[in-house]
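User: Could you check the structure of this?
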Amino acid sequence: MTGEYVYCVVRAAKQPSMTRVPSGMPGAGAAEARRIAPSLWIVVAAVPLDVYGPDALEPRLRDLEWVAQAAVAHEAVVEHLWRARGTTVIPMKVFTMFSSIERAIADVAARRAAIERTMRRIARAEEWGVRVFRRSASQEQASAARPASGADFLRARKQARDAAAGARAMTFAAADRAFRRLRRLARDARFRDATSASGTNPPMLDAAFLVASSSRARFRAEARRQARALAAAGADLALTGPWPAYNFVGGESA
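Assistant: Sure, the predicted structure tokens are below.
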């Protein structure tokens, strides 16, 4: 038995070509585009319920390697369609499934007005990600003479704490300035959950920007300028993209 896995909703003047679309989710059938309304399509694939049914899927979600493989496969299909000429794409969340194609089509059709509003907002735009990481404080060696007294030692400790606090404040101010400057060149911006980032140095700033394709060059140039300013303040800026508007489709990705 099979269910219907939904990758995305596509607005296009004609049926999206499924030629050379990546294979998609592990064990899934070939992706196909099904018409919802004029110029609106849903991209789906049949998936085996012994893998993707509720009882079978729940234990698999504890296998992080399998989940990561599935997420990459999902995004590969979405991004292939997004890069096609003349399309606007609303990505669905990973593991969006329905018991039948009729139910999948009915669900999207019921939300058509909201989907069309989202399509207009993200049309001819792309998502860029910006993360700012504060550099680890260098381990300064105490080459100066040892403090002559306990009072000197306490003063030195306080000066070090004050200097560290001042450096942190300068870095956070630079990160805030970078966000505001980049925001001016974007249609929209969202803060992402920095706690989801792995590692011991979580980002000070983790944001997504919805940028008109025509503004791409200006946005990237401003990101380079802000990267230089942040470097002087003791931080590094990482820019990723362009991507489909994963963070700007609101409830329509559910």
